[in-house]
Amino acid sequence: MPFPIYQVDAFSDHPFAGNPAGVCPLAKAAEPDWMQNVAREMNLSETAFIWPEADGYRLRWFTPAVEVDLCGHATLATAHILWETGRLPSCEEARFFTRSGLLKARRRGDLIELNFPAKPEESANPLPGLSEALGTSFQYVCKNKFDFLVEVGSVEVVRDLKPDFSKLRQIEARGVIVTSRAHAGPYDFVSRFFAPRVGVNEDPVTGSAHCFLGPYWAQRLGKSEFLAYQASARGGEVRVRLQGDRVFLGGKALTILQGMIL
C-alpha cells in the first residue's frame, strides 16, 4: 500500500533554506531496513518516521546511512506536519517517544518550540589530526555524548571553513560542531556542523547540536536565551532558551513537497 511522505524545510520561514527533512507518517511500526532504505532514497540529512503510540507518537530518525539517537530539525518538521495535516489539533502539544526519551513540541507564538534534553560539555583533549581535518586552529575543544565542539576565533573562520571530510570521518563521534561568538548583528553565536561519519558531510541546521551549544554559551555569556545562526550554505536561525536540564529550541517550518511512496 502507498505511504504518504513530506519534505519540510525546518528552521526557516521561506523555501529552499533551513534544513530539509523527510517526514513519513505511518499507521504502525515499520521494519528498520525499510525505513533505512526510504531515508537513503530521500537522501536528506534525516528522514523521520512516526506512528501512534500510547498518548503520543513513536519517532525514529534515519540519515541515508544510519539511525540516529537525536535529531532536532526532523522533530520540528514532524510536529509541523502533524498540525498542518490535521493529524493533531494545532492547539495540542506533540509528544514523541524516542531513543532520547520523551520529547515534546508546541506552538509558541509564530514558532514551533521543541523541548529537548540539555547535552552539556565534558572535558576532552585535543584530538590528533582534528585541526588538520578542519583546516584551522582552534581556541577550545570539548565533547558531549554525541559530538565534539570546537570554538574558533571569529565568525569569519566558521563561515570560511573547508574541512577535509575524509579526515573528519576518522573522528570517533557523531559529528564535530564548530562555533564562535558573534560580536555584531542580531546573533549571539554562529556554528556549523559536520558529520561525515554518519553519512552527512555538513548538516544545514542541526537542532540537536544546540542542546550542546546552548549550555556551552550560557556558561560563557552569562545568559540563558540566545538567537543562534547555523552558517551553512542554506543557513538557518534557532532560538535557544535553557531551563534546568532542558533546552527549548524554537524555529519555523515550511512544507516543500508531498507525495506517496508506492
Tell me the name of the CATH homologous superfamily of the largest domain.
Answer: Diaminopimelate Epimerase, Chain A, domain 1
CATH class (first level) name of the largest domain: Alpha Beta
Tally of strands? 18
Fill in the CATH topology of the largest domain.
Diaminopimelate Epimerase, Chain A, domain 1
Low-pLDDT residue spans: none
**Class from helix and strand fractions:** alpha+beta
- Using the CA coordinates, give the radius of gyration: 18 Å
- Number of domain modules: 2
Helix content: 10-25%
Mean pLDDT reading: 96
Strand content: 35-45%
- Name the CATH architecture of the largest domain: Roll
In whole angstroms, the N-to-C terminal distance is 7 Å
Count up the helices: 6
The dominant shape is: globular
SSE ordering? EEHEEEHEEEEHEEHHEEEHEEEE
Biggest pleated sheet: 18 strands, mixed
Task: Provide an overview of this structure.
Helices cover 19% and strands 42% of the residues. The chain has an 18-stranded mixed beta sheet that branches. The chain has 262 residues and is α+β, with helices and mostly antiparallel strands. The relative contact order is 0.19. It has 2 domains: 3-118 and 249-261, Diaminopimelate Epimerase, Chain A, domain 1 (Roll); 122-241, Roll (Diaminopimelate Epimerase, Chain A, domain 1). The chain has helices spanning 32-42, 72-84, 130-134, 155-160, 165-168, 210-221; strands at residues 3-10, 19-25, 46-53, 56-62, 67-68, 94-98, 101-108, 111-117, 122-123, 140-143, 147-151, 175-181, 189-195, 200-203, 225-230, 236-243, 246-251, 253-261. Strand 6 and strand 7 (101-108) form a beta hairpin.
